[in-house]
Amino acid sequence: MGFMDFVRSRSLKVKDNKRTKAAELTLRESIYPIALVTVLFFLWGFSYGLLDTLNKHFQNTLNITKARSAGLQGAYFGAYPLASLGHANWILRHYGYRATFMWGLFLYGVGAFIAIPSIKAHSFGGFCAAIAIVGSGLGSLETAANPYITVCGPPKYSEIRINISQAFNGIGTVIAPVLGSYVFFTFDDATALENVQWVYVAIGIFVFLLAFAFFISTIPEITDADMAFQASETHANADDKPFWKQYRLFHAAGAQFCYTGAQIAIASYFINYVRETQTWSDDASAARFLSGAQGAFAGGRFFGSFLMNYVRPRWVLLAFLSACIVFIGPSITTDGWTGMSLLYVVLFFESICFPTIVALGMRGLGKHTKRGSGWIVAGVAGGAVVPPLTGVAADNHGTAKAMVVPLVFFVAALSYAVAVNFVPAYRNPADAFSTTDVGLTDRHDDMDEEKGISDKMADERLGEAEHVNTAPEKGTV
C-alpha cells in the first residue's frame, strides 16, 4: 500500500445513517478502543489537577486575589460549551469520533504552546487565554470521549466502563498536584515560572503525538444508526421524541452544571482551605494534601465501579451525591485535621457522580446521542461559575465558610439523582439499558474472518454496490 492509499484509508468521514457492528461490540472487542480513549481521560485529569495547583501558585507569584485567580477556572471551563455545543459537536455529527479526538488534541497542543510566552511575560490574562484554548480542546475531547466510552461495548456495563475510564482522570489529578508541589512551590518565583513553561512544552509535544496515534489507529465508529438500533433493542425508545422534548437529558445537563461547579470549587480552594485551617502548613505540603484528596477521588471511582456490579448505578449515584452533602456541611465550621478529613471524604464520594450522570443522562437517546452528549458536557461550564462565587465568599468570609457555596449546588444536583430513582420516565430507560443482553452474546458470530463484516451486512453492501438481489454464499463478501 502506497502512502496516498494509506492516507485515503484513514478517512475521517463517517456516514451516520449506516449501521456498523459498533453498537454490538463484545467486551473483548471493545478493549482496545476503550484503552486508547482512556488515555484522554488521564490527560484532562492531569490538566485539571495542574490548574488547581496553578490557582494557588499565581495567587503567590502575581499577588492576585482568590476571586481573580478563579479566572483560570472561568477560562478553562467556560470554553467547554463553545466546544460541546459548537465546533466539536459539529465535527462529531458530521465526521465522527476519531476526527473529534484529533481536533481536541490539536487545540490542546496549541493552547499549551501559547501558554509558554504568556508565562514568560508574567501575563495572567494571556495565560487565561491559553488555558481557554486548552479548555476548548479538552471540551472537544470530552464531547466525544464520554459518549464513546458509554456506548462502546455492552450497554449493561456503560456506567462501569465510564467510571473505570474516568478513574484514570482521577489518577491524573493525583499526579499533577504532586508535580506542582515540587516544581512550583519549592523554588523561587522565577525558577517556578520557568518550570511551568517546561511542563507545557512536554504536554504540547505529547498531545500532538497522541493525535497522530489516533490518525493511524483503527477504532470502531459509532453512528446515529447504531445508537438508534441500540435504543430499539433495549426497548427504551426515548429517541422517538423530538430532541427538544428530551427532558431527562436537559435535567441531567443542569445537574451536571451544578455538580461540576461544586466539585471544581472544592478542588480549586482546597489548598487555601488547608492553609487557613492548618496553621503550620505551607503551600507545598497543602499541594501534597490535595494530591492525597485526589487519590481518595480516584479510589472512589474504582470502588464505585466495583459497587455497580451489584447495585444499580442510579442508586449508587443517589447514595454518593447525598454523602457529598452530608460531609461537606460540617467542614464549613470545623477546622484542623477534622475539617480537612471531611473534604477527603467529600472527594471520595464525588468520584462517580460526573461519569454516572453522563451515562444515565444519555440512556435511550438513540439517534440524538451525539447532540445530547454536547449538552451534558456543556454542563461542565458550572466550573466557570461556581469557583468565582466561592472565591468571592472566601475573600470576604474565609475559605471554610465559603464551602457553603458548593453545598448549595450539590443540593441542586441531587434533584436529578432523586428523579432518576423515583420518576418512572427517568427510571425506566435507565433500567432498560441495565438489563439488555446486547453485546453480551456474540450476535455477529457469522462475521467474515477476513473482512469483519456479517453476512447480512455483506448482502446489504453488495446490493448497494452491484444492485443485485442474490445473496453471497455464507462466509464470503
Q: Could you characterize the architecture of this molecule?
A:
The protein has 477 residues and is mostly helical. The protein has one domain (25-435): MFS general substrate transporter like domains (Growth Hormone, Chain: A, Up-down Bundle). It contains 22 helices and no strands. The chain has helices at residues 3-9, 27-61, 66-69, 71-78, 80-94, 97-120, 124-151, 158-183, 189-216, 224-234, 247-268, 270-277, 283-307, 313-331, 336-350, 353-361, 369-378, 382-397, 399-402, 404-422, 424-435, 455-466. Helix 7 packs antiparallel against helix 8 and helix 14 runs antiparallel to helix 16 (353-361). The radius of gyration is 23 Å and the shape is globular. The model is unreliable at 444-477 (pLDDT under 50).
Topology diagram in text:
Layout: H1 3-9, H2 27-61, H3 66-69, H4 71-78, H5 80-94, H6 97-120, H7 124-151, H8 158-183, H9 189-216, H10 224-234, H11 247-268, H12 270-277, H13 283-307, H14 313-331, H15 336-350, H16 353-361, H17 369-378, H18 382-397, H19 399-402, H20 404-422, H21 424-435, H22 455-466
Shape from CA axes? globular
Number of strands: 0
Q: Largest beta sheet, briefly?
A: none
The helix/strand series, from N terminus to C terminus, equals HHHHHHHHHHHHHHHHHHHHHH
- CATH topology name, in short, is Growth Hormone, Chain: A
The first-level CATH class is given as Mainly Alpha
